[in-house]
Amino acid sequence: MRLSRYFLPVLKETPAEAQIVSHRLMLRAGMIRQASAGIYSWLPMGFKVLRKLENIVHEEQIRAGHNPMLMPTLQSADLWRESGRYEDYGDEMLRVTDRHGRDMLYGPTNEELITDIFRNSVTSYKQLPLTLYHIQWKFRDEVRPRFGVMRGREFFMKDGYNFDVDQPSAMHAYNRHMVSYLRTYERMGLKAIPMRADSGPIGGDDTHEFLVLADTGESEVFYDSAILDLKLGDREVDYDNWDQCAAIKQEWTTPYARTDETHDEAAFTKVPEARRMSSRGIEVGQIFYFGTKYSESMNANVVNAEGERVPVHMGSHGIGVSRLVGAIIEASHDDRGIIWPESVTPFDVGIVNLKQGDTAADEACETLYRALTAKGLEPLYDDRKERAGAKFATMDLIGLPWRITVGPRGLKNGIVELTSRKTGESQELKPEDAVARLVEIYAEI
Ligand code: ATP
Ligand code: MG
How many other C-beta atoms lie within 10 A of the C-beta of residue 262? Predict the structure, then answer.
């Protein structure tokens, strides 16, 4: 993409309404614009990051054996009356009436709709286990939408639902989700810690929230710092292997890690003092096992191996995809702007032409642009007639992990400069070596 043709409305001023850094930077970097309270338009660059996160979520869900699908945003109130949640959900539910006077709602979550789909098609344990998920916009009429996409009213969420014949099988689904979530966040360059959470009004036997540590997080968290050393890395995971998934869950849930809702001071003091941490965290996902809560109220039964009709065991599992865009920025920025991890960056590398209009510089940039594109990388070429300082400031603000700087002086010696956004370190390289280096870097992602 050429910057001269890209819609990137960066702001020089710091927007007054933004209280936290991710919100400020998303506005300044031209990623989002507010449409109304808690509702945002995703401009091209924000949309690109959102899509990248969505793709990672899809890839990891499919790897875990889950079925992608798509349910609508508008739902009929009748299903929610069956489960009893139409009244219970309260003011966060946006209720609408269609022209025939039918009660509808903008889905805040999808347990009812998915249970209805399930009960109309699945009757036997032989069709299980089954996990269905989608990534779709949700609406919750939050009292105080704030912090940009962190607490929106309309937000993008992955929600998945497992259906199992009994409790042990449902616990494997729970563990499998935990492992796939750990992998998902790791791929996004994030450390998200599973913390025992409170099951709240959804009602459940087992639930963990995933929290990214950040001063601006809305949750208070307590944890053993040993958990920060855990990493899945490139471990091979067989998602059908109950023991392996259980062992990984065990590994991640052994060190103390809880939100304030479930915090247990007595248990916490058993952690060696030097490792006892308390801080703030951003909830980026949650997994739930809730047994037969919905299957009983909505008559979702299957015949088991013994020939008995039993209510199916379920769990629901969510990832806050749009919130993650903000969470990644909270975790990775400096005072000049965003620093994208390579796996989610909107463009792989920025090309800065120091002297637009100079034949040698223009040609070298074009050649680089073509070479990078041919290797499957996505460059953003700043081909505007701007001062070098302004170009650097834009690149720093939008946070592409790598920048190639091309200028007449370097070209006289046959070199360009490759700079890391994170460390600020630069290397002088021949243009073709800069391309090769980037190919190497991105091959590892
Ligand atoms: P919270 O406690 O932050 O209100 P929740 O526990 O009600 O969230 P879940 O039902 O667990 O939310 O939804 C799954 C995920 O969706 C959350 O972990 C979070 O990342 C994201 N999410 C929930 N509410 C919002 C919101 N208003 N704006 C953006 N993302 C949200
Ligand atoms: Mg939650």
Answer: 15
